[in-house]
Amino acid sequence: MSTILHIDSSVRAIDNPNPNHNSISKNVALKFINTWRQMRHTDEYIYRDVGMNPPGFITQEWIGAVFTPDEKRTSAQKEILVLSDLLIAEVAKADIIVISTPMYNYGMPAQLKSWFDQVVRINKTFDFDLARGDFPLRPLLSGKVLVTVTSSGEFGFEKGGVRESSSHLQPHLRTLSKYLGVETIYEIAAEYQEFADERHQTSVSNANNRAHSLATELANSASEASSAQCADHV
C-alpha cells in the first residue's frame, strides 16, 4: 500500500459560483488524485489545503524551539512545534507527494512557503555538518516521488522559454523538494490564464490529460512493485 500526501495551495476554491474563479491548479491535481484512487482505492490519502488553511509563519520563538535540544525544550516550546512535527510526520509517511500551486508574482504563494518553512527543519528533514565542506546540508528522507501541478497567467516559463528568467516557482519547488526526500519529480503546468484564449483552453486540457495519464502510469508502477514484493515473500 502506498501513501499519497496531497498539498493544495491556491487561495481559490475548486468550485465557485463563478466558474472563472475556480482554481485551475487544484482541479488539475484533483484529476490526478481521482485517477489514482480509482485504480488504488486502498492507498492512504492525506490532504491539506494550505491555501485555505495556511500554517503559521515561523517566528523567533519557533526558531528558538527548533534549536533547543529535545530534552531541554519547555512545554511552551514543544507546543510551538506541534504543527511542524505533524506536517513532517505526514511528509515522512508519504511515498508520493502531490503539490498544486498557482504562480503568484512569479513565485509560490506565501501559504505554501509557510508550509515548507514548517517542514524543512534541521535534524528532522535535513542535518548540518561543516565536515562536508561547502555543502553541509544533507537530506534525511529519501525515495519519494513529487508531482507538481502549477498554473500561471502568462506562459514561457520553461527552460528556454521567453520568461525563463522570471520563473521562481518551479525552480524553488525543485530546490526544496530534496529536503522532502524527493528523488523523482514530474511536472504538470497550465498556462495562459490571463489571456483567456484558445491557448489557455488547450493548455488546461493538456494539463488534465497529463494528470490522468501520469496517475495511471504511476499507479500501475506501484501495483507492479507491490506484486513483486508479494512474490518475493511467497
Automatic annotation (TrEMBL):
Residues 17-211 form the Flavodoxin-like fold domain. The keyword Disulfide bond does not apply. The keyword Transferase does not apply. FMN binds at residues 10, 23-25. Its EC number is 1.6.5.-, 1.7.1.17. Signal peptide: none annotated. Keywords: Flavoprotein, FMN, NAD, Oxidoreductase. Its cofactor is FMN. It comes from the Bacteria. It catalyses: 2 a quinone + NADH + H(+) = 2 a 1,4-benzosemiquinone + NAD(+); N,N-dimethyl-1,4-phenylenediamine + anthranilate + 2 NAD(+) = 2-(4-dimethylaminophenyl)diazenylbenzoate + 2 NADH + 2 H(+). One of its GO terms (molecular function) is electron transfer activity. It holds the Pfam family Flavodoxin_2. Binds 1 FMN per subunit. Belongs to the azoreductase type 1 family. Quinone reductase that provides resistance to thiol-specific stress caused by electrophilic quinones. Homodimer. This is FMN dependent NADH:quinone oxidoreductase. It comes from Paraglaciecola mesophila. The gene is azoR.
